Amino acid sequence: MGISRILIANRGEIALRIHRAAHEMGIETVAVHSTADAEAMHVRLADHAVCIGPPSATESYLNVAAIISAAEVAQCDAIHPGYGFLSENAKFAEIVEAHDIKWIGPKPGHIRTMGDKVAAKQTAGELGLPLVPGSDGAVSDPEEGRKIATEIGYPVIIKAASGGGGRGMKVCESEDQLETLMKQAGSEAKAAFGDATVYIEKYLGNPRHIEFQVFGDGEGNAIHLGERDCSLQRRHQKVLEEAPSPILSDDERHRMGMICADAMAKMGYRGAGTIEFLWEDGGFYFIEMNTRLQVEHPVTEAITGVDLVREQIRIADGKPLSVAQDELEFNGHAIECRINAEDPFTFAPSPGKVTYYHPAGGMHVRVDSGLYAGYSIPPYYDSMIAKLIVYGRNREGCIMRLRRALEEMVVEGVKTSIPLHQELLRQDDVLNGDYSIKWLEEWLETRE
Ligand code: ADP
């Protein structure tokens, strides 16, 4: 018996995204929601809905007992965690499987390994992925730290093994600061993540962020679906993503993609994953692997034609990969703008009631969003309210269409980052694809 009813353990646009894939496969959906999300679009569209707690995520979307009970009561045979919340919680994945419910995600052991940055880096190295030069594992002794830093050369970056969201990192320019910064990084990591373990790696001055989408069947077969360039970031948060990367040749894509696919095959990886690299002067350096669906997955869907959520559900159901590596083609160009309910200049969150909403439309324009006129954006969660994904036969055409789509899109009642995207798409460096992970913040400083 295949999967017939999926519990969606998430909210917002990704909950809707999962609902859509499920319904297209003839699978029923069960939405779980906090009291703040009772009127959300995915709750309205799902076949069944269960309220699992008050607004605070800890008591609702992170509430394992409530979610498992909802799955039992509503007789779900699978759970999709989306991204964020419990999606990379190995313990949760184990609990789901222990209840004989299918976990639409990677094997819990792989989630655990990749969630520990020191173990992830070690594993990645063993699997043949190129690493940022640095310590082999955790470093606690300042003398050992000095030795490693001298070997790889300053500047170096001290990172927390349990870090995440760009937190718990210190850049060290010279030897005299190393001991102090190692101590600081350790105690800050302890306070933030409950784990003082740190490691050291070479600090790259001006890299791009390029990540590869991978998929495995859990039985030793794996494919890659090309890369996404996510270099336009503010405070380590991606703002705009594109596929393919403007700087990667077909040969390079094939070479790196196959290194990633082979690594996943060797590991016996199951489901969707993203291997993140920094790229500088033609070299790739592994930084981390995300064992889940990414926010920016639609740009990959646009250039490959593969529905990644459908693929996740198929794999969880024990089916083989629907496409072989040599059947995959990368066509055209796609760009995603993350649209947040926030001030486009100060970035202050702007929750509240949407009085009018008109999404963009037309050929090759996709809007993933749970917005509707009259909806109140709650203040408790992430500020992303929509993703605008546009496809074109080439990058230039894609950008022209994206500008047109941004002109059409109207959200009234709250402030949004639409004007920021419009401004970005007038910058020569963005038009030329000439940007690194530092570009956006540097540009924001010179704005006005
Ligand atoms: P997190 O899990 O906290 O997001 P990552 O390891 O993915 O941590 O790093 C987050 C960001 O920090 C990267 O996108 C990059 O901007 C910066 N960074 C991480 N490692 C390095 C490095 N070795 N050199 C330069 N920048 C780095």
UniProtKB/TrEMBL annotation:
Kindly state which keywords UniProt assigns to this record, in alphabetical order.
ATP-binding, Biotin, Fatty acid biosynthesis, Fatty acid metabolism, Ligase, Lipid biosynthesis, Lipid metabolism, Magnesium, Metal-binding, Nucleotide-binding
**Domain ATP-grasp spans what residues?**
121-317
> What EC number is given for this enzyme?
6.3.4.14
Record's superkingdom? Bacteria
The molecular function terms in GO held by this entry are: ATP binding; biotin carboxylase activity; metal ion binding
Q: Reaction catalysed?
A: N(6)-biotinyl-L-lysyl-[protein] + hydrogencarbonate + ATP = N(6)-carboxybiotinyl-L-lysyl-[protein] + ADP + phosphate + H(+)
* Family annotation (PROSITE patterns): ATP_GRASP, BC, CPSASE_1, CPSASE_2
Q: Where is the Biotin carboxylation domain?
A: 2-445
Keyword field contains Transmembrane: no
The UniProt entry, under SUPFAM superfamilies, shows: Glutathione synthetase ATP-binding domain-like, PreATP-grasp domain, Rudiment single hybrid motif
Pathway as given in its UniProt record:
Lipid metabolism; malonyl-CoA biosynthesis; malonyl-CoA from acetyl-CoA: step 1/1
Family matches, as InterPro entries: ACC_Biotin_Carboxylase, Acetyl_CoA_COase_biotin_COase, ATP-grasp, BC-like_N, Biotin_carboxylation_dom, Biotin_COase_C, CPAse_ATP-bd, PreATP-grasp_dom_sf
Offer one example of a GO biological process linked to this entry.
malonyl-CoA biosynthetic process
Which proteins does it associate with, and in what oligomeric form?
Acetyl-CoA carboxylase is a heterohexamer of biotin carboxyl carrier protein, biotin carboxylase and the two subunits of carboxyl transferase in a 2:2 complex.
Relate the protein's function as given in its record: This protein is a component of the acetyl coenzyme A carboxylase complex; first, biotin carboxylase catalyzes the carboxylation of the carrier protein and then the transcarboxylase transfers the carboxyl group to form malonyl-CoA.
Q: Please identify the protein, giving its name as recorded.
A: Biotin carboxylase
Give the species.
Parerythrobacter jejuensis
Q: Which gene encodes it?
A: accC
